[in-house]
Amino acid sequence: MHNQLPTPHSALTGLTVIDLTRVLGGPYCTQILADHGANVLKIEPPSGDETRMWGPPFVGDTAAYFVGVNRNKEGMSLDLSQEQGRAFLRTLLADADILIENFKPGTLEKWGVGYQTLQQEFPALIHCCISGFGADGPLGGLPGYDACAQAMCGLMSVNGEKNGEPLRVGLPVVDMVTGLNAAIAILMAVNERHTSGLGQHLDITLYDCAISLLHPHAPNYFNSGNIPGRTGNDHPNIAPYESYATGEGEIFLAVGNNRQFALLCQKLNHPALAEDARFINNADRLQNRPQLREVLSVILLDYKAQELAQALLASGVPAAPINNVAQLLDHPHTAHRNMVIEQEGYKGINTPIKLSRTPARFRKGAPALQKPLM
User: Which UniProt keywords apply (predicted)?
Assistant: First the structure.
């Protein structure tokens, strides 16, 4: 991300977004839009987005959690449960392109500012609703949370050691993928509006987004009837595709074809291993995975994970050291890719979306909580 230029122009310059979201999925979405030039106004209730208090650590009196997904936004506080607050919201929507919210379904309707009402007043407004399950159906209207979606939608059932308990993925993957899908949906609707001149309702749920992540587990189930289970770091369809201990650190091998396996054996100075009848093809290696693991585990103890991974990658074998967060953030390639931004007292993960002519720009850190306007 670059500093603001005297006449900044980004891919979404000119779009105005009214952001009524809180916690993660919605704010993650609107930070993407804000990074790329959209004018995002984050409207919080008088008590603020609850993630402001999700610390330590804190940046001043605001949790790092909140700071990490709310940069480049303007801030405002409104009590939308009061008619005055909703009236002011309407004045903002008159000049807005997009409304994004993650209220419990039915809340805005109860307040008289649901999609059907706003569509009549602002026909070009794109209304993106993020919810747990949508407004109707067997689970319609119920609240949704990342960990619950991971549990309900099968992600935990395939995450963890083979003989261990189901595990939550160690980051809020459903919330963030929901935010990504919301951003994609918004940009699709903006593009379509160029033709129709009309806005539309975007229905994005944690439930749907969690289900969409079940690859290859759902295709495997559809075509075999076998219920997928936990395999630890092992890939259910490929071998060797798992982590190994080395003499120093752990390495992940992601060998996807026979050529890569032969290269791996060469780099490990055991070329004959690629000709072993047990390991000729992926199906053979998968069937004989325990024996392959036993052989490779002994060989790899003679190597260091960081050095070996670099050498394997250079030779065309997918491999990586298993880094912790500090190692990753301090990695020279992280710096080369400009993936940590440190400007004007702000430090965070930079955008991965890189455009050549209209790059993302840092304009300001997360907004402070404002006093309610009314």
Answer: Transferase
